[in-house]
Amino acid sequence: MPHDTSLYSGRPSDLIGKQIAGYRIEREVGRGGMAVVYRAKDLRLDRTVALKLLAPELARNDTFRKRFTHESRVAAAIDHPHIVPVFEAGETDGVLYIAMRYVAGRDLRHLLDREGPLAIADATRIAIQVASALDAAHDHGLVHRDVKPGNILVAAGTDSDHPEHVYLTDFGLTKKSLSLTGFTTVGQFVGTLDYVAPEQISGRPVDGRCDVYSLACVVHETLTGRPPFQRDDDMALLWAHQYDQPPALTSQRPELAEPVDGVLAKALAKSPDDRYESCLAFVTALRAAATGVVAAGHAPTQVDMRAVGVPRHPGPVPEPPGWARPVFPGSAR
Ligand SMILES: Nc1ncnc2c1ncn2[C@@H]1O[C@H](COP(=O)(O)OP(=O)(O)OP(=O)(O)O)[C@@H](O)[C@H]1O
Ligand SMILES: [Mg+2]
């Protein structure tokens, strides 16, 4: 078979030490639904990169193949401090690959699994970096469509004011179109169901506001340890995204200032028209609500919160010291 190559037998350990398109594979750093990511050495420039290899069975699938090729072009087109830079993409011996900056650290999925819910200051600092990357993509007419903790890489920052540097990756599902549905031509849903916006589910046109929704789901999980909706099966979860009210953040984090509930409710609104216009508008409002500082415009009022169905609640309670732990302990993966 032409695509069953000696480069990729399906067992990752078989590739360690091998050379692919001028990169020497050093070790596996992670795998997702359609690819395996390795740390590798670019032998031409003698630098470490992250090398993403498409699973061979997917390389034979035209839909996945196109999406993978598209990812590299889209990501390479945006130059932003919080978007992982793409160095090269191509195909060798039937294997599709993409070489990008190796981000030493861990993704937000691992971080949450290890640390549990984060302090509000840490959560908003991470969210602001992701939001700026997303808004930059939206300014290019691109919608990420797969914002989730596994696509948010957290590296060590420069100083105590910037304890971590966050990168958004995986633009494989980004489409330079405002009218594509969330389904592939083979009927598979694109992306993880925990973070998917109602309009992606129903196949309505999507724009940057679907990333606002997904980012809000990520923020909810960052602060509570759980995405807003958890159901026993996929159909129930899709239903919940479309019709159920998300639980108030303060029901799981009672020490948070009550106005954060209104901010999350607005970012998670079922209709894109009822959400924040941009990701930064959402996260800025969240930070202002959490600290009681009024941002540009105004912080959500009781009227705003009644409009989005959030009940009145007593005033803010300070976070206990236990929540104020550092997000990034400085250890590389
Ligand atoms: N540039 C990078 N530097 C370091 N590690 C990376 C890099 N890109 C991805 N990774 C790691 O590889 C893992 C797998 O990435 P991949 O995009 O294949 O899967 P995923 O995002 O978890 O799932 P999905 O396939 O649904 O997007 C990531 O979760 C991350 O830990
Ligand atoms: Mg990914």
Short description:
The protein is α+β, with helices and mostly antiparallel strands and 333 residues long.
Q: What's the order of the H and E elements?
A: EEEEHHEEEHHEEHHHHHHH
Radius of gyration: 20 Å
Average pLDDT metric: 81
Tally of alpha and pi helices? 11
CATH homologous superfamily title of the largest domain: Transferase(Phosphotransferase) domain 1
| Quantity of strands, as a count | 9
Give the low-pLDDT segments.
Answer: 1-6, 173-190, 295-333
Helix content: 25-40%
Structure description:
The protein is an alpha+beta fold and 333 residues long. The chain folds into two domains: 78 residues, 2-Layer Sandwich (Phosphorylase Kinase, domain 1); 186 residues, Transferase(Phosphotransferase) domain 1 (Transferase(Phosphotransferase), domain 1). It is 34% helix and 18% strand. A six-stranded antiparallel β-sheet has the order 1-2-3-4-6-5. A hairpin with a 2-residue loop joins strand 1 and strand 2. Helix 4 runs antiparallel to helix 10. It is globular and about 55 Å long. The N terminus and C terminus are likely disordered. It binds adenosine-5'-triphosphate and magnesium ion.
Features:
single chain; 333 residues; alpha+beta; Phosphorylase Kinase, domain 1; Transferase(Phosphotransferase), domain 1; 6-stranded antiparallel beta sheet; 11 helices; 34% helix; globular; disordered C terminus; binds adenosine-5'-triphosphate; binds magnesium ion
Please write out the topology:
Elements: E1 19-20, E2 23-31, E3 35-42, E4 47-54, H1 56-59, H2 62-77, E5 86-92, E6 95-101, E7 105-107, H3 108-115, H4 120-139, E8 152-159, E9 162-168, H5 198-202, H6 208-224, H7 234-243, H8 249-252, H9 259-267, H10 279-291, H11 302-307
Antiparallel strand pairs: 1-2, 2-3, 3-4, 4-6, 5-6, 7-8, 8-9
Helix pairs in contact: 4-6, 4-10, 9-10
Bound molecules: adenosine-5'-triphosphate (ATP) and magnesium ion.
